[in-house]
Write a structure and sequence with these properties.
Layout (H helix, E strand, L loop, with lengths): L2 H4 L1 H44 L3 H30 L7 E4 L8 E4 L11 E6 L6 E5 L11 H12 L6 E3 L2 H9 L12 E3 H9 L4 H12 L2 H14 L22 H11 L3 H7 L3 E3 L11 E3 L1 H9 L6 E11 L3 E10 L2 E10 L8 H9 L4 E3 L2 E2 L3
Parallel strand pairs: 2-4
Antiparallel strand pairs: 1-2, 3-4, 3-11, 5-6, 7-8, 9-10, 10-11, 12-13
Helix pairs in contact: 4-6, 4-7, 5-7, 6-7, 7-8
Length: about 375
């Protein structure tokens, strides 16, 4: 008899337990099968987006691409309009023989009543040296103190020691007082340096400085004037002639806006000249007459800062003014716009308009013809 036969009660209990466990096992397994199917479906659904974008997302990307192309097209159209739309203005546009390359310029004659000056020229300082706008630029007019641009340039080329001490010539000083010329502020016999004379000639347009500078450089005014005319011819100023280094009125002292443009462009290639031409202020060497030196200020740069008439993004960074009865009010200035420099010459504005200076008014008006960007013109 085996052990199970000895305990029949236990065998019955075991059989009942086995019967009870079977349905539990079947129920449990039947409940787990749907979970397997559900898990499999979830697994497949999470993998599907990684292999392929949904139609909605593809449509969104197409819309973004179309928007980008439209934006680029609009930007290109705006650029073309700004670049070439200026050709529709009612100004006379033609090829000019003023510049070497026959480039297109704006003849301001149809709108001459918008300017005070008799003659105007606006051109690039460097680069292709294009003429951008002009009004009777070859008319011969008195240059007034714009003469001193040439005076300073010739003096710089013929004086090696700018710290040399010299005296203000008394006869020159007295002549300038008699002529009621503009003065730098030096006295007769006052000891100054050649550098003081150069800045005194340019910034405050001092007649005593210019006259003394001519004597120091060449020994006589006549010799210095000969150097001036020789220099003028060497750079193509064939419509100009000078009789004195100060700019005093004389029938044979004349120039044109076109010639002055050549002068400014050539002189500004000399770093020493440009340093003087663009200096806002200067203080002369201290001496017995002026223990603190003579304070000088560039009248062109000062006027631009005081009246604030220049168009947006334009500023005057260098210049020389001139005023006489015959010449009227004259300016030669360097206008800077978008880091590009331009020469602006205005001649023959009336004397009675000085607040604001009509030279500044005309310079600000002609500056509206400067390019808004390279190779495109911005006009009023």
């Amino acid at each position: 008899m085996n052990q199970r036969d000895q305990y029949p009660y236990n065998n019955q209990i075991n059989r009942q337990a086995q019967q009870q466990r079977r349905p539990q096992t079947n129920a449990a397994s039947s409940k787990r099968k749907p979970k397997l199917k559900s898990t499999t479906k979830t697994f497949k659904s999470t993998k599907q987006p990684s292999r392929r974008h949904s139609p909605k997302k593809r449509f969104k990307k197409v819309l973004q691409l179309i928007g980008l192309l439209l934006g680029l097209s609009v930007g290109l159209l705006l650029y073309i309009y700004q670049s070439y739309g200026a050709a529709e203005i009612p100004l006379k546009i033609h090829k000019t023989n003023i510049v070497e390359e026959n480039l297109t310029t704006y003849d301001l004659t149809p709108v001459a009543d918008q300017f005070w000056s008799q003659s105007i020229m606006l051109s690039e300082l460097g680069g292709k040296q294009r003429t951008l706008a002009y009004l009777d630029p070859q008319q011969r007019l008195a240059p007034a103190s714009l003469t001193k641009i040439l005076t300073v340039w010739v003096a710089l080329e013929n004086n090696e020691d700018l710290d040399q001490v010299v005296s203000i010539d008394l006869d020159v000083y007295l002549d300038m007082v008699e002529e009621n010329a503009s003065m730098a502020g030096f006295y007769g016999y006052e000891e100054v340096t050649v550098r003081d004379l150069i800045y005194g000639t340019m910034l405050p347009s001092g007649g005593e400085a210019a006259g003394t500078l001519a004597l120091v450089t060449s020994g006589s005014e006549a010799n210095f004037v000969a150097l001036m005319n020789e220099k003028a011819r060497s750079i193509g100023m064939y419509d100009s002639h000078f009789m004195n280094p100060v700019g005093l009125d004389h029938p044979d002292q004349y120039t044109t806006a076109a010639d002055l443009t050549k002068l400014v462009r050539a002189a500004c290639q000399d770093p020493d000249f440009y340093a003087v031409f663009s200096a806002p202020t200067y203080v002369s060497t201290e001496n017995e007459n002026h223990p603190e030196g003579v304070y000088m200020e560039n009248s062109v740069i000062r006027a631009e800062r005081v009246y604030e008439l220049m168009p947006r993004s334009c500023s005057i960074v260098a210049g020389k003014s001139g005023i006489t009865d015959d010449a009227g009010r004259c300016w030669a200035s360097i206008i800077r716009k978008n880091n590009v420099d331009y020469i602006a010459i205005t001649l023959g504005a009336p004397m009675y308009m000085d607040d604001p200076p009509v030279q500044l008014v005309d310079t600000a008006e002609v500056a509206k013809y400067l390019p808004s960007r390279f190779f495109s013109a911005e006009v009023p």
